[in-house]
Design a protein that fits this description.
Elements: E1 6-12, E2 15-21, E3 44-51, E4 54-60, E5 70-76, E6 83-90, E7 95-101
Antiparallel strand pairs: 1-2, 2-5, 3-4, 3-6, 6-7
């Protein structure tokens, strides 16, 4: 399983800024190993962020996203002490969910 995501969520004036650093190889399937064989594609396909059971971000990704992707976005309504949950699923069915408390 992948390393935990590093999530930071800060509320200011009713707007929550969320920063997420995900640990994932994000192989495109186009690279070749040292023996010339293609390295199989392995990348995050979907990312979802929820707050109080509501989806505040939903994204579909492909192989063009960089290794260990960084995501930053804002949403309105969250307040200090609330939880934000981030989930990603990759093209091999692996899944990772982590959460952070809004500061």
């Amino acid at each position: 399983m992948a390393d935990p995501m590093r999530i930071r969520a800060v509320s200011k004036d009713g707007v929550v800024n969320v920063k997420v650093l995900m640990s994932h190889e994000m192989e495109t399937g186009l690279r070749k190993d040292s023996s010339g064989k293609p390295v199989p594609a392995h990348f995050i396909q979907s990312v979802s962020v929820t707050w109080q059971g509501k989806v505040v971000l939903s994204a579909q990704w492909g192989p063009a996203v960089s290794k260990n992707p960084f995501l930053e976005f804002n949403f309105k309504g969250g307040k200090k002490g609330d939880k934000v949950e981030v989930t990603w699923t990759d093209n091999k069915g692996e899944k990772r969910t982590d959460e952070a408390t809004i500061n």
